[in-house]
Structures are given as structure tokens and as C-alpha cells.
Amino acid sequence: MNKRALWFVIIGLALLNFATFLFFMSKESAPDESSETVAKIGKTEVTREEWLAQLENRFGKETLEQMVNSRVVEELSKKYNITVKDETIDRELDMFKASSNVTESEGLENEKEWRKQIRYSILLEELLTRDVNVSEAAMKTYYSENKAQYAFDDAYHLSHIAVKSEKQAEDVIKELKAGSSFQALAEEHASASEQQGDLGFITEDQTSVPKAYRKAAASMGAGEYSKQPVKTDKGYAVLFLNEKINGRTYSYNEVKEQIRRQLALEQMEGEVSVKPLWEEAKAEWFYGQKD
After folding, report:
1. Residues 160-186: pLDDT tens digits?
2. Which Gene3D superfamilies does the UniProt entry name for this protein (predicted)?
3. How far lies 201's CA from each of 150, 208, 269, in Å?
């Protein structure tokens, strides 16, 4: 995994922790309610004040750091007139989905947050690399040698319900026609030995799912379930197509700036971090000097 891809994943994990902390902190009550009991174990009580103090001890510093980082990037991006076009975010999101096999449970249920994450990542990269020179020749050479990085086949975000017999699959389809939720039916059929529900994105060359799945998905529209049972080596399945991304190859001009940032980051020593930007943005915080 290159430095840029690793940074993308790190940001995603950090934002997840950030969102979790803000969710709990949003439940904070008025000061006079700080002694409210939020849990009881026999005669022992846990007060809201104790609970929130523990949350701050566990997540407070990391969450505040993420908030400061975000503000630093936004302020300096305005200072240097750095912006990110929607089409750039669309392209990077499609490439990420098609290549990462991300499932809903791993973050795709909130695409708006992923778009924010991509925008933040690009702004940060632009700020960190704005003084790094990368030649046109180097960028063209990199594109020529790594063209496959900027191309992907049709990608299908699939969910499935796998069963043993055709009759069972037909019964599932009947329930779907009657208005049942695909997710609810998938949960009903789940077992320790059989994964049901979301499979993430699959592509033509992926061998982790039956070939019949890819063939069936090609004839389905987003938001549709398979109207006929799909036969596999292990039995039958009913599929649901959450989303389809049409395969394509991006031209050099389309990904030129992405390549520039990537090559510039690889020239930098150490980890990719917002840290060098704090001083320029005159950022200060509760925990004192940032390391």
C-alpha cells in the first residue's frame, strides 16, 4: 500500500472515532444533570459526569486533535485558494469503491462522510506538496507505467441470500415481491457457516464470489433483486444490486494532479501529517504544544 492510500485509510479510521465521540458527547445534559445516573450495578451507580469524564479520557485528545486538524486544513486552503472540484471527488470515490471492496458496514452507508474525507485528504495533500516540484516527464512516465491504477472494470455492489435449494430461493423471491426487506431476509438466513447480506463491490476478475453472481449482476439495475434464482456450485442465491459503477480508464489529463500529489508525497520524508501546518495556522489547544 503506497503512502497516499495508507493515509486515506488512516483518515477514515480517525473520522470514525471522531464521529463516535461526538455522538456520545451530544448526549451531554445541562450542568445540574451531571449527577444523573446512567447505569446501575446492584447498589453502585454510574453518573453522567463519570461517564462523560471517561469518554473524554479515552477519546477527548484524539477527537480534539481531529477537530483542530480539520480547521487548520480549511483555513490554510482558503489562504492559498485551494479548492477541490466535485468531479475530482467523484472520480476518487469511484476508484476507491471499485478497488477496495468496501461494504456498507465499513462506511459506505454514509457516502456524504466519505466525500468529506476525500475532500479533506486532497486539500491536505495540496497544502503539504504545494512547494514540491514534480516534472511533467516524471508524471507521464508514472502514468504510462501504472496505467492500471487508473482503470477499473464494471463494479457491482452486491448483497446476497444464499440457500441450498431452488425452492428456498423462489420462496425468498416471493417474500421480496410481497414487500419484505432484503436485509431482513438476509439476517433471517444468516448462520455461522454462511455469510449473508452485503458482499461489497465485486468486479469481473474477482474470484471470491461465484462467477454466476457477476453474470447476473450485469443484467440488473441498481435497487433491483434477481427475479430468478441464481444457480451456484453450492446451491442457489438471490441477489440485490445496491449500486453499479461503470468501468473506465482515466486519461492522463484526468489524473495528472492526483499523480503529482502522489509523487510529491513520496518525495517527503516521514509520515504524512497535518503537524507541519499547525504553526503556520497559529493553532493552539488545551493539551499544550503539539508534538
Report:
1. 999 999 999 999 999 999 999 999 999
2. 3.10.50.40, Porin chaperone SurA, peptide-binding domain
3. 17, 11, 34
